[in-house]
Write a structure and sequence with these properties.
It is a single chain. With about 100 residues, the protein is an alpha+beta fold. It folds into 2 domains: about 50 residues, Rubrerythrin, domain 2 (Single Sheet); about 45 residues, no CATH class. The strands form 2 sheets. The chain has a 3-stranded antiparallel sheet, with no helix packed on it. It has a 3-stranded antiparallel sheet with strand order 4-5-6. β2 and β3 form a beta hairpin. The longest helix is centred in the last third of the chain and has 10 residues.
């Protein structure tokens, strides 16, 4: 399997820095910039508008579109149709409980 990479060529550098890219379940592709520190540079993103702070399989948030999902379920649907214990089960086990 070929890993997708973004290449960044810094001024004065002879070779581009290869940065791994990841495809999320939802939303935009992600570029892993952790290795930039090794090259003496950091990213600048005021307000963290283009920065993912963590990898999460539980929560997806898109503030501009007003989307909040828990394990793929809309928080609005969960608030209306599920009780506290069902949501707790969902967060812990990745699926809503069944009657079994």
């Amino acid at each position: 399997m070929t890993e997708k990479v973004a290449k960044l060529l810094l001024p004065g550098a002879e070779e581009a820095i290869e940065l791994p890219m990841y495809q999320p379940t939802l939303g935009n592709e992600v570029i892993d910039v952790r290795s930039l520190n090794k090259h003496g540079v950091f990213t600048y993103d005021p307000g963290f508008m283009s920065t993912a702070s963590c990898e999460s399989k539980i929560t997806y948030i898109d503030g501009k579109k007003g989307i909040l999902l828990y394990r793929g379920y809309s928080i609005d649907d969960l608030a209306e149709k599920a009780d506290f214990m069902e949501v707790a089960y969902l967060l812990l086990y990745g699926e809503l409980p069944t009657r079994q």
